[in-house]
Structure formats: structure tokens, C-alpha cells
Amino acid sequence: MKNIIFTLMILVAVVFSSCELDRSPFTEISADELFEDPGAAQSATLGNYLFLKGDKGYDGWSDDLHRISEYGGDNVMISGGTTDPLFFFYNYQRNPNNSRNNRFWSNSFKAIVGTNRVIESLNEGETEEQDQVIGENYYIRALVFFQMGNVFGRPYNQGTENLSIPLKLTSDIEDLPDRNTVGEVYDQVIKDLKKAESLMTINKGPSFASKEAAQALLSRVYLYMEDNQNAIDYADDVLDSGTYSLLSSSRFSVMNTLAPSENEEAIFSITLTKGIDIPGTEDWFTIGSFYANIDGVGWGEMYASQTYLDLINDNPSDLRKSFIEPQYTEDSNGQKTPSVYWVNDQYEYQFRDVTESSGTLTIEESGNTYTIESEMINGSTQYYFNGPDGRQDVTYDYDMDKRNGYPKFFILKASQQENDLHLWSPTVSRLAEMYLNKAEAMAKEGMDQQALDNINILRERANVPPYTLSSLPAGKSVLDVVLEERRLELAFEGHRKFDVYRNARTMDRRYPGSHLNNSNPFFEIQPTNNVIIEYIPEQQILIQPSLIQNE
């Protein structure tokens, strides 16, 4: 950790000059001299934001956090192998020498020490602007502590005495704290966020921390703690502020193309800027490049999982399908081939071409011809055929381009900001989450109708029918449908893994993907399994042997 903390003396900052963004390292200025300049604290704070997004826009804290938090969920699948250590997050094959995990830890403490230096160097109550700067640093520190705790510590409801992360609260290079408990980390996060909330009075837009950003994160923190009333109250603080509004349906369907400043429901985003953060060929290294190939750029090797597709296809009109782009095959005349597909008992995709004659659809399977039948289920058409093993439900669509037998369902939510190929500003908080936080907390408090009222606001925006207490799917509780709605709405934004385990639910990964190709694959992961939390980087334990490794 000493190596990390020494980076304080080389502060990377972002300064605004002539309305253009410019990066400048403070390589010739001591920390004490830095804060003699009235504007230096703001510059240092911008440097702390830079730690979150990375010097190149894809090598920072938010990039690795996304890989750690999203790839271990059930919304995505990888279509083959990769030498990138992100594969370990996806497969739950933990490695204490994972370079991405090491970088996440390192960047986290760079940001934390940077915020500590600013907090230590400024006095509260002198000017509104100075209080705002101090508050922004408290917010950044709280955000980093919170997400580090999610990665390296167990969920709150599994015990507050479990070990989490070291709480580094000074910039002193000799201050090397050992791991604190989960309860202590949550207490510090809340303390920092409440301090940030009290200090920040200037809202500079979603690229910067604000009072509302602190309240939004407090709502989530309390939700994770199962302190439901506080989760509701802080969500209401944001909703009642009047600062944000949900995107209209038409704008929501292209939300991925909007810069944070153009997105009226964005509360805080780690903002990447067109033409600056992802220049030239560096689109290949972004989060979105792994999800899609656009105009020949991007690996396009990780796709939407079949269970996520099944959920979103329950309502064919769901606008959240706008962020999924199936890659259909075409013949030389640009014609698509009608096809049905399903997943067999070995979790393999099966595609069959469809022949239509006099309105009858048929397929050939194992030398036999089968008729494709259909029926209406909950307002949607379900196709199927009666094969030798009984009824087989299928999806009727077109044949698709595949990689290693896996159809390419490209994910666009992390691409195409401002029509740049793979530019995306990772979302930390947006207004839709406040409705979801309230709904989940209310469902857990037995406020079933109020919970449905909140998710119905999002369902109607997404162009899907609202729920009533009498129209819930068979066998599902209000909490079940609320969590499904959370999965649909916040997919590919880094929530799903944490949402499953903090609710003591099992991660079900029984769907096609290379995660099942290992000799010991995880078909299901229980919330108490050790693999749900990452190892502390081995190099940190070598530097500080008193750090206790996760089991």
C-alpha cells in the first residue's frame, strides 16, 4: 500500500482552460505548495475524478469495477476463451494475482488518498465553493469505500463482523490500516455521505458529485443494509428535489447515445468525453467493445444471456430491448432466414430453419418433420413443437450470426454515446434506481401495492403492462417481480451480482456460455459461497503482511 500512497505526490489533475479539457500532472509541485493556490483544491479534486475514469478512459477504477460487478452476474455470457483476466470474474475462478483486480485496488486507494489530502487541507465553513469541493471529496471517498466493500467484503446481512477493506482516512504514508469489518465500512460510508450531503449546495450537473448524488447513494447503501425506511426516505429526497425527471419513452430507448449532461435522469456518472477520453483506435479497449462490434470495431464476444433474453421477451414491446441488437445472417440478396431456436438440456443453442407452406410452419429435426404450433400465454405468443421427448418451446425469429455456436446478441448499453462507437460514461446513479430502491424496500415492509406503483412507473415508461396484485405471474411474490424489474432496468450497469447475493438468493447460471466449459463449472452460486468475494491482491499482502486474505 505504501507504493499506492506515494502516488499522492504525483497528482494527476484535470484543469479547464479556454473552455477545453486539458490534463496536467503536478510533477513539480509539493503537496503543501499545491494548496497555496486557491484553485488547486478544485484541480486536485478533478484529479480524483480522473482516477475513477482512468487516464485513457478505459484503464480506471470504473472500468475494472464494471468487469468485476457485471461479469459475475446472470445477464451476460462469454462466447469463448480470452487471455484477459476479466475471464476469472466471469468464471468465478478467483486469482490473487489478477491484474485487473490489483488495478482496481490500486486505483481505489489512489482516489481515497487523493480525497483525504483535499479534505485535510481545507477548512469547512469558509466559502460555499470550498464546502462544495470538500463535499465532493467526501462523496468520492464514500463511493470508493462502498464499492470496494462490495467487491472484497461479504454482504451486510451475512454479518457485520466479517472482514471488509482497510479504511484509509489520512494521507499519511505511514498510516497503513488493517482490514476493517463490514459494519465499520458501512458506518464510514454513511458518515462520509451525510457529511457530503450537508456540505454540497451547488449542483454542477451529473459529471460531478452533488447533494442529490449523496442522497441517491445513501438510498442504495441503506437498501443493502436492509434499513428499508431510510432507503425510502433518501430515494424520496432525490425524487422530491425536482432536479431530475425520467426520460420519455422515446429518449429512454436511445439512452445509451446521450451524454450525461443531456440525460435528465442522470444523477451522477463517471463522465467520459468524446474525442478526448477514447481517441483513435482505443475504442477496442473500452467496456462496450467487449459487448459489440460496431462498424468493424470491437471484440463483440460477450452477449446477453438467454435467461435475460427470456425475461425481457416476456413483453415483446419492452423498450429495454433497444439495448440488445441481434446479429442476423443474410443471404446475398439481403434476405434473412426464418428460424426457430431453443436451448437443450446440455445448455447448447439449437437453431433450425423454418419452412412455411400455406400458413403452416415446419422444421426438420433428426430426420423428422415437425409442425411449429403457437398459443397465447399472458398476452404473448409462445411457439413450440411436439417432438419425440414431448413439447419443446422455441423462439421464432431469424437465423443469427454465431461465435462458437453462440448467437450474437450484442449489448449496446455501453456504446454509442454521442454516436461515438464505444464511448460510454458509466452510470453511478440515475433516477430510475430511486423508484426501484423504494419498490424493493416497500416490498420488504409488506407495502405491496406501493411497491408495484413504483415499478409500474418504469414499466409504463418501458411500454410494458403495469402489474396489479391480481396479475402477478403464478408463483411469484411482489418482491420477486420487483427484483426482476430491477434486473431488467439496471442490466449492464453493474448492479446484478450484488443484488442477487445481498438478497440471499442463488445466482442461477444454467444457460449457454463458456462459464460452463470448465472442468468444475458453477451452474449455481450460493450467496454464502466464498467465491462471491474477490481475493485481496497478493502484492498488497506482501507489502503489508498484516492484511488477512479472504478464504
Can you put this structure into words, describing what you see?
- This protein has 551 residues and is an alpha+beta fold.
- It is built from 18 helices and 22 strands.
- Strands 10-9-16-15-14 form a five-stranded antiparallel sheet, with no helix packed on it. Strands 11-12-13 form a three-stranded antiparallel sheet, with no helix packed on it.
- Strand 11 and strand 12 (360-365) form a beta hairpin.
- It is globular.
- The relative contact order is 0.13.
- Mean pLDDT is 91; it is low at 1-30.
Q: Based on helices, strands and strand pairing, what is the structural class?
A: alpha+beta
β content, as a range? 15-25%
Largest sheet: 5 strands, antiparallel
Amino- and carboxy-terminal Cα gap: 21 Å
Uncertain runs are 1-30
- Give the mean pLDDT: 91
Biggest sheet: strands side by side, in what order? 10-9-16-15-14
Overall geometry:
globular
Separate helix tally: 18
Helix share, percent: 25-40%
Number of strands: 22
SSE inventory with pairings:
Layout: H1 2-5, E1 11-17, E2 20-26, H2 31-34, H3 40-53, H4 61-71, E3 76-78, H5 86-91, H6 99-121, H7 128-152, E4 163-166, E5 179-181, H8 182-199, H9 211-225, H10 228-240, H11 249-252, E6 266-269, H12 287-291, E7 302-304, H13 306-312, E8 324-326, E9 338-343, E10 349-353, E11 355-357, E12 360-365, E13 368-371, E14 373-377, E15 380-387, E16 390-398, E17 402-403, E18 406-407, E19 409-411, E20 427-430, H14 431-444, H15 448-461, H16 478-490, H17 496-502, E21 507-508, E22 524-525, H18 538-543
Helix pairs in contact: 3-6, 3-7, 4-6, 6-7, 7-8, 7-9, 8-9, 9-10, 9-14, 10-14, 14-15, 14-16, 15-16
